[in-house]
Amino acid sequence: MSVGNFYPIGTPGTPWGTAEKALWRSRQLVRRRYADDVLPVIERLRAHFDVIQYGELDYSPDGRYPLFSLRSRDWRDDLPVALVTGGVHGYETSGVFGALRFAERDAADYAGRLNLLIAPCISPWAYERIHRWNPEAVDPNRSFRTPSPAGESAALMQLMEPLQGRFLLHVDLHETTDSDETEFRPALAARDGKPFEPGTIPDGFYLCADSEAPEPAFQQAVIEAVAKVTHIALPDDKGEIIGSPVVAHGVIEYPCRDLGLCAGMTGARYRTTTEVYPDSPRATPEQCNEAQAVAVRAALDYALAHQR
User: Which residues are the active-site ones (predicted)?
Assistant: First the structure.
C-alpha cells in the first residue's frame, strides 16, 4: 500500500474519534486463524507444560479469544523465573512461532534450572488480521502500564503480578517489517492527528535493550548467537536503527517502562526485545523463526551463567 503523506481514514491534523476508529476496524479482515495455527500447538504442548488460560478477550462481533501461557511443569518456588513473550504485535509472525518452537524443542533443557513462563500469542485478534493494534486501535506494546488501555496487556500484567521480584530474564519477541513504514506508522500518525514522517526499515536482526538496565554483555551474547542464523542489522548513515542511536553491534536502547513496552513489565535483570526482518531478501520465514528461538536460548544460557 502506498500512502505517501496521506492515510485514507480521518482528516489530516485531527485525531481519530469513535467514527474513524470504527471505520478502521471495519477494514481489518481475517487473514488467518488463531484457532487453526496457534491453539493446536498449545494443545500439543500440554504433554510437557501446564497450560494456563490467563484471560479471554471479548471482541464481539469478531469473537472471543482465550489467552494461554505455558508454565514449567516442574515449577519450584526456590528457582528464578524466565518469561518469554511473543505476538504482542499480532502481525509479527516469528514472535509467535519462535516462542512455540523454543517451547517444543528447547525448553526441556532448562528443567530444574529455572521456571519458564511462555506467553506465545498475546494479541490473537491482531494475529488473525496481521495487524499491530487491537480492535480499539490501541497498540498493546505501548500499554504495559496501570491502568492499561489494552486488554491484552492488562491480562498479561495480572498474570505476572504474583511473580514480581522473581524474574531473572524476560525476552520479548518482535519483528520490524516493511509494513511498519507503509501501513502502521502512517496509521499511527493519522490516528493521533500528526504528520507522517517517513523513516527507514533496517535489514536484519537487532535488539532493543532497556536503557534502565542495558546489560551490554548480555545483549551481545544474544547478537553473537543469532548471527549464526541470520544477518545482523547495520546502522544507517546517521549511526541509527529506526531513529535510535546504535550503542553496540545490532543493539539500540529504549526506556521500556516509560514507553509502556512489554520488555519493561517485569523488572528482570536481563531483558531484551528481539527484532527480526522477515521482508529481507536475505532471510526466510524459517530463519526468522529459528532466530527467535536461538535468541531465547542464548539469553537463557547467559542469564543462568551470570545470575547472582
Answer: 275
